[in-house]
Design brief:
The protein is mostly beta strands. It has one domain: Beta-galactosidase, Chain A, domain 5, CATH 2.70.98.10. Helix content is 4%, strand content 42%. A hairpin with a 5-residue loop joins strand 23 and strand 24. The longest helix has 6 residues.
């Protein structure tokens, strides 16, 4: 294999019009290992293709080739998107910081979810491309969705061999809370059947139990002896319907795992493997937590590539993050960002097949 063959390439095209008249674009990064479609709308991954053990290429990410379904279908709003200002849930959409109370936009019953209805998944990012990377920037004004401070954010996708790297950088002019994450819906089969036969390993001895509204109770519970023990590989479907109250609350897995070895540096978080295709996805991150979501609320309303309906449990999300509701949980790692501080976060996706 020559050096010329290993060099990635990037292509750009217009993707469609947003309701406010702005134009969304599609960027394609590719090399001989991975082909990635990214949009500046929501900074989202639209398509990821990799070969299986027989070198047959297929989709490993659920998405759609057109812009319109992402705008029209509520089920599609978070597919592949960058999430902010705060990934996951904040109880009651409220928190206090430095003696000031803040009320956020609520979009999950009484709670705030994924930055609110106008979060980072729903904005047009400014894009700057290179041969192997796409840099996206967005300035979130003070008060957007109720969050304090003007926040400047940069997200960079970089493709190097079989590795896709996503890095965040952010600064604020007022104290604020920040939890940037990424919401890809993975299915390594090359289609949209279900992921119950995927093997999952999560590097976590503990997880954060939730109440009936999927808000953490504050406990850091041991996974040992529970359906949440993925320290060794288990099929996602093996225990997903076990008579466990935590699973019943959210219809399967939708929980934050407390990652072992999290100290701010890059560490291995999870491995997802499809025995049928041989494809494997390894996720590493600098974040302290990983949300595992088994597509419990997908209902077939979002129709993607090849006219496939994305049904319940047709994908699994592995979302590196700070813990849900951390602004209201003083024992959780702090999500507070202050002026003069820098928020830096990295997640890496490594694809292989055997």
């Amino acid at each position: 294999m020559t050096d010329t063959q290993t060099q990635p390439s990037l292509h750009t095209r217009t993707w469609g019009q947003l309701p406010d008249g702005q134009t969304a674009h599609l960027y394609v990064l590719e090399n001989e290992f991975v082909k990635v479609w990214i949009s500046d709308y929501g900074g989202r991954l639209i398509r990821v293709q990799t070969p299986d053990r027989n070198e047959v290429w297929g989709d490993v990410l659920l998405g759609h080739e057109a812009l319109e379904p992402y705008l029209a279908q509520e089920q599609a709003h978070y597919y592949g998107a960058l999430i902010g200002r705060y990934g996951n849930r904040i109880a009651g959409g409220r928190f206090s910081l430095d003696g000031q109370n803040y009320q956020l936009a609520t979009n999950d019953g009484p709670n705030a979810l994924h930055g609110g209805p106008g979060g980072f998944h729903a904005v047009l990012w400014e894009a700057e491309s290179g041969t192997d990377e796409l840099r996206l920037t967005y300035t979130s004004p003070d008060g957007e969705e109720g969050y304090p401070g003007t926040l400047k954010v940069q997200a960079t996708y970089q493709l190097s061999g079989p590795l896709l790297r996503l890095s965040f950088h952010a600064e604020t002019d007022q104290a604020t809370v920040l939890n940037l994450t990424h919401h890809p819906f993975w299915s390594l089969t090359g289609g949209a059947g279900d992921v119950l036969g995927h093997q999952l390993t999560v590097n976590a001895e503990r997880y954060t139990p939730v109440d009936a509204q999927a808000i953490p109770t504050g406990e850091l519970a041991l996974v040992a002896g529970t359906p949440f023990d993925f320290r060794t590989p288990h099929l996602i479907g093996e225990r997903i319907d076990a008579p466990d109250q935590q699973l019943a609350f959210v219809g399967g897995y939708d929980h934050n795992f407390v990652l072992d070895g999290a100290s701010g540096g890059l560490h291995h978080a999870a491995t997802l493997h499809d025995p049928h295709s041989g494809r494997t996805l390894d996720v590493s991150t600098t974040e302290p937590g990983l949300q595992v979501y088994s597509g419990n609320f997908s209902n077939g309303s979002f129709v993607g590539f090849g006219d496939q309906r994305y049904e319940k449990r047709s994908s699994v999300c592995l979302e590196p993050q700070h813990f849900p509701d951390s602004p209201n949980q003083p024992t959780f790692p702090s999500p507070v960002l202050r002026p003069g501080e820098v928020y830096d976060s990295v997640t890496e996706y490594l694809f292989s097949a055997k």
